[in-house]
Amino acid sequence: MTSSVCQGSASGVTLALFMATSGHSGVDRVVANLLTGMVRLGYRPELLRIRDHGPYLPETPELSEVSQVSLPAEHVNTALPALVRYLRSKRPDCLLTDKYKVNRIALTARWLSGTTTRLALRIGTTVSVDLASRGRLDRVFERWCFRHLYPATDAVIMPSRQAADDLERLAGWPDGRVTAVPSPIVDTERFRAIPRPDHPWFRDGSVPVIVGAGELCGRKDFETLLRAFARLRQNRPARLVILGRGGRLERLRRVAGELGVAEEVDFPGFVSRPEMYMAHASAFALTSRWEGAPVVLIEALACGTPVVSTDCPSGPREILGNGRHGPLVPMGDDAALANALRTLIDAPPDPDQLRAAARPYELEASALAYLRAMGAVSGDDA
Length: 382
Prior knowledge:
Layout lengths: L14 E4 L7 H15 L5 E5 L16 E5 L8 H11 L3 E5 L1 H14 L4 E5 L4 H6 L3 H13 L6 E4 L2 H11 L6 E3 L28 E5 L8 H12 L5 E5 L5 H10 L6 E5 L5 H5 L3 E4 L8 H8 L4 E4 L5 H4 L8 E2 L4 H13 L4 H7 L5 H12 L8
Parallel strand pairs: 1-2, 1-4, 2-3, 4-5, 5-6, 6-7, 8-9, 8-11, 9-10, 11-12, 12-13
Helix pairs in contact: 1-14, 2-3, 7-12
């Protein structure tokens, strides 16, 4: 493990981020926001990507300052030689990576390259719950990596204290080995005046619209949201919009039909600005079975929109201040979720208080916390 902090002014510190994503996930927005925050603080990071993989950066003035390096590899599993060459030639002061496979490649590449680049590994989910959903060999292998590979890194970063504590217990690490850093979600410029989406249900405010967002997969448990919505519809008009794409789309359409609410539910797919829907919704609902720190929940708070979430591991309880900023309901409990939605629609909380709860996740504040965790600046530097 290297021990020195990356020294120098913002212009003198070289930063690299190595990510491989689907191109349409919450991680993509986190990466774009983190890079934007770093640029605003005076840094000029490089983004390393795998060919034909995300993250894809939107065209903004800040992100035009980010150099994008396409590693000559078709998959994360074949990216090791290219990353070794990059580290030897560029020798960045700090490298930040994300997710299990990329983290392992980075650890191996630094060792093979013989460089002293500080390495910070990010994991964005609750590891124990995630591994419980995998096969036995995967579980054994990842646990072995945490105990035998990860100790060589300089920093491990997770988006919530709950998730950090979970990994420390699983890996047998001492308290404080993992740093919890709020994700960069809220761009104050972008969230200042949010236009309405081009969707007929948001033009007329007479019928409440509930919004959910995320990958259409089992972990997000949109089936519970559909059942709760059907309960809500028994005694009041309402509509539901679920943003995102994924393999469970047809199943969710079928469930909506079986519940008799298909005409009141819409699946627009992936949208580049989900906050346009959130800001003009009557309520936002998160029904996940596990998370790390759900981006969409923070975005909804930043819009001043009433929110409800399952009390899943981990992140929602932390983000919602143990229920002060929005109700927490048991996972899979559609009755409790329906009651919480009814209360939020009938008596919405003060939107300014909700926005205030999202301030720790503003871009510049989060980027500075990342830089400190990575060792790019000392704790006293602003």
